[in-house]
Every structure is written in C-alpha cells, then in structure tokens.
Amino acid sequence: MLIAKTKANLISKLEINQGMQEEPNFFERVYDLARLIPKGRVTSYGAIAKAIGSAKSSRMVGWAMSQSHGSVPPVPAHRVVNRNGILSGKHHFIHPNQMQELLEAEGLKIQDDKVQEFKTRFWDPLLEL
DNA sequence: AAGGTGACAGTTT
DNA sequence: TAAACTGCCACCT
After folding, report:
1. pLDDT tens across A26-73, in order?
2. A77 touches strand B (CB under 7 A)
3. Stated in angstroms, how far is A114 CA from C10 C1'?
4. A58 touches strand B (CB under 7 A)
5. Nearest nucleotide, C1' to the C-alpha of A56?
6. Per DSSP, what are the bridge partners of residue A36?
7. Which long-range contacts (CB under 8 A, 24 or more apart) does A93-101 make?
8. What is the pTM of this model?
9. Cα dist. A77→A1, A20, A25, A94 in Å?
C-alpha cells in the first residue's frame, strides 16, 4: 500500500546514505553509536544525541530509530529507551512486546514498560568514549 | 519551497 | 507533582 511504498523509499534512501561513507551524516552517527551499546545495557535518545554532538536532537534520534529496521549491520534499537527507562518505542516493533522480549532475553527485567535497575543498566556513551 | 512530523528532554505552570 | 509548553532539526510531501 501507500505506507509500504513510502517505507520502501525511506529504506532505499537510507541504504544509499550508508553507501556514501565520506561524510557521516546524522543517521549514520546515530546508528554507529547505537551499535556500540553493549548487550544487556541500555541508553537514552538524549544520551545518543549528546554523544554525537547534537545534544538537542533527541527527537531525531527517535525518528532515526524508527527507520533503522532493515539496516545493516543491525541496529539494536531495543536498547534505546527514554531518559526514564521507559520503552517508549515499543510500538515500532513487529509486535509491541518484541522490544521487551529482546531486552529480557539479554537479562534485563521490565515492568510496566520500564527497565528495572535503570541506573545501573544505563550505558552512557560519553563515559565510554 | 514551505510546512509538518516525531520512539525526546528541559523548563515552566 | 504532574501536566503543559517549547525548542529541536533532518527528512518527508
């Protein structure tokens, strides 16, 4: 349908962007950083935005995540939550439960769409770089 | 080509 | 304390 077609266009553009590695754009930087998130840890949209030098673009990080499906290498979008540890992006997965399931498969506990022990599970890109 | 849209976050009521 | 408001900016139509 229309939606599918739009998405296909987006994906193809993203692939093109990934192909041109000369000037890493916003998306690439978001994705590259997201790929560094260790298994079993999570970070926030804002933390990623800040880490790529665009501290006030957290909304775009979320948008980038929504388009990350299908990109290669894979982007662990499920490890990105909002600053309160809430799984605000769960609706963008195949099944709304999938985000939680993926996280639980990595050893995290989720309750009411919120990562438990969020503080200790939080991975701050700035501290690791 | 101008305006709309977010998987947010910080500030103000 | 919570809800409302506001800034944000790459990308889409």
Report:
1. 888 899 999 999 999 999 999 999 998 888 889 999 999 998 988 889
2. yes
3. 29
4. yes
5. C8
6. none
7. none
8. 0.83
9. 25, 22, 18, 13
* Rounded CA separation A36/A101 (Å): 20
Strand locations in chain A, DSSP E?
Answer: 43-44, 80-81, 110-111, 114-115
Q: Is the pLDDT of residue A77 over 50?
A: yes
DSSP string, A38-75: PTT-BEEHHHHHHHTT-TT-HHHHHHHHHT-TT-SS--
Q: What angle do CA A25, A78, A100 make, to 5 degrees?
A: 165
Establish whether the CB of A95 is closer than 7 Å to any nucleic acid atom in strand B.
no
Q: Which of residues 4-43 of A touch strand B (CB under 7 A)?
A: none
Question: Which helix (H) or strand (E) element contains residue A112?
Answer: none
**How many angstroms separate the CA atoms of A98 and A24, rounded?**
30
Nucleotide with the nearest C1' to A68 CA: B7
**C chain positions with any atom within 7 Å of a protein CB:** 7-13
